[in-house]
Amino acid sequence: MQAQQLIDQFETFAPLRYREEGDPTGFQIGDRKATVHRVLTTLDVRPEVVDEAIENHVDFIFAHHPVMFRPAKNLDFAADPQLAMYGKLVANHITVYAAHTNLDNAPGGMNDWLAETLNLENVTSWLPNPSAPEVSMGRVGLLPEAVSLQEFADYCKSHFDIAGLRVIAHDLNQSVQKVAILGGDGGKFFKAAQATGADVYVTGDVYYHTGHDMLAAGLPVVDPGHHIEAVCIPKLAQLLQQWSIKFGWHIDVLESKPNTDPFTFV
């Protein structure tokens, strides 16, 4: 099959019109007409992931985070590991596609996967996309039973399989049950999360001063980090495997193994 066939099918699930304004989602590097035999799903395209792809004879990397958030000023491969990574991708004929905010907004996509990880019930959407108001990025739902904020923080650590997280709250003993969640960097949307009536908001990369605003607003926030979006690695693999069987693509789908979280709790 050609790379474009895979892209076309995915974009029936998460169309590019679902992406947020200015987001470099979509085709990143390579040849849309290239034949695809092995696909690697990943959260991030980092040098160790590219080395993994080369070692496993992968010809298509399917990522969540775009590999090219900012344009390269040159392609001096010896000057920067990031630029060297681009050179390896091209030299090894590896096509790269990234589904970022279109996957975040898509029904059954990233934010539904995160809500599912927390076993939220009666899940609904919030934060509509201005360009595609029929979809929303955030999700809100109920825990099976009310727990203390401390218990919920421990629950998040366990279910997201992380070593640590940050909690923004005055009282760790307060009861929470209704949870708003938004993967990635969602701190700036805390007022919209609070408007859902949520008892607690789960999102990553909360900025220091935004944390003060959250405290003043009385909204407890759990920040488990950006890397919880790695849930996409097995979920994307499952989607591609299902389509491979349905459409007779005959491709191998691999899940990336390196941990691309830049942070270590010590």
Report on the structure:
The chain has 266 residues and is of the alpha/beta class. The chain folds into 2 domains: 3-103 and 230-254, NIF3 (NGG1p interacting factor 3)-like (Udp-n-acetylmuramoylalanyl-d-glutamate--2,6- Diaminopimelate Ligase, Chain: A, domain 1); 107-223, Udp-n-acetylmuramoylalanyl-d-glutamate--2,6- Diaminopimelate Ligase, Chain: A, domain 1. Helix content is 33%, strand content 26%. The protein is built from 9 helices and 11 strands. It has helices at residues 3-13, 47-55, 81-91, 101-105, 110-117, 149-160, 190-195, 208-217, 232-247; strands at 26-29, 38-42, 60-63, 95-98, 121-129, 132-148, 166-168, 175-185, 200-204, 221-223, 252-255. The protein has a 6-stranded mixed sheet with strand order 5-6-8-9-10-7. Strands 1-4-3-2-11 form a 5-stranded mixed sheet, sandwiched between helices. α3 (81-91) links the parallel β3 and β4 (95-98). α2 (47-55) packs parallel to α3. The chain is globular.
